[in-house]
Amino acid sequence: MNLLTAPTASGHGRHANRRRIEHLDPVADCYEIHRLTAGFEFPWDYRRSLEFALFRTYCVPTISALLQKTGEFEYRPQKRYDDTSLLMAEMLEHGYDSPRGRESLRTVNRMHGKYDIDNDDMLYVLSTFIYEPIDWIDKYGWRRLHPNERLAAFHFYSEVGKRMGIKHIPESYQQFHAFKSEYERSKFHYTDDNNKVGTYTLNLFTSWYPSWTRPVAERVVYALMDERMATAFGFPTGSPRLRSALDTAMYARARVERFMPARKNSKASKDPNNRTYPGYPEGYSPSDLGTEKG
């Protein structure tokens, strides 16, 4: 099936994709389902939630220590962010076994191969790509996810993880979720490296907005963090009043989106306004991303 065209085979209307997903297999069709979910149904939610998913992983001291050692987030935070998000988006848009998907995996593995990374840390990062977007959409999405969408995300990223050489990937959705929860409970605690990498990332997020709005943007980021995350970074606890206001605004956004027409084109990997790679993907291949070759 050619997924590079609009998914209109099962009918028209805002819920056509959900009806299509109901009849797909979350194991055999995990790529097709996940592309529909992330590229057509919830592209904005997926992008925002994956920003926070990556941010969350820096609460693990061994992860932040490695990032601090490499200097990637101190000196090139925007490039580091764009490389990661675009490489994962390439696999989502084209499939992990497509030519661009395989090229993306080679690039990811080349980047990671330079460092001695603990398997469980890699496993934890992989888990955030599954469950952080699901949690976000459960709270802020314009509709509820179908069970097939939840399982498809698990199977899609499990397959990506296998191709990255990650070992001991849990065999079920529930087991992997339990691993993520326990890893955060046991590993999240404050270190100076957490604080440094977290601050670089916070500064990156706020740099996307006009200078006069950045103090407000910073408070918004604090408000979106849970207490465990804020403690691990050594950041102040977010304002409950601001968090409530953000929730209200996001619920209003979801109500409006519910009545918008279904998207005709995937927004998974198209990012013409990308700060590091302007016009992406036009003129770029996945091997152009990532740290320098060699």
Task: Describe the 3D structure.
The protein contains 14 helices and no strands. The N terminus is likely disordered. The protein has 294 residues and is mainly alpha-helical. It has a domain of 192 residues. 63% of the residues lie in helices and 0% in strands.
What tags apply to this protein structure?
294 residues, mainly alpha, 63% helix, disordered N terminus
Shape: globular
Helix/strand class? mainly alpha
Average pLDDT, to the nearest integer?
92
Strand content: under 5%
Tally of helical segments: 14
Helical residues, percent? 55-70%
Major pleated sheet? none
Give me the count of strands: 0
Give the low-confidence spans: 1-6
In short:
The chain has 294 residues and is mainly alpha-helical. It is 63% helix and 0% strand.
What does the secondary structure layout of this molecule look like, with pairings?
Layout lengths: L15 H7 L7 H12 L1 H15 L3 H10 L1 H4 L1 H18 L4 H14 L6 H22 L6 H17 L9 H15 L4 H16 L6 H11 L2 H7 L6 H18 L37
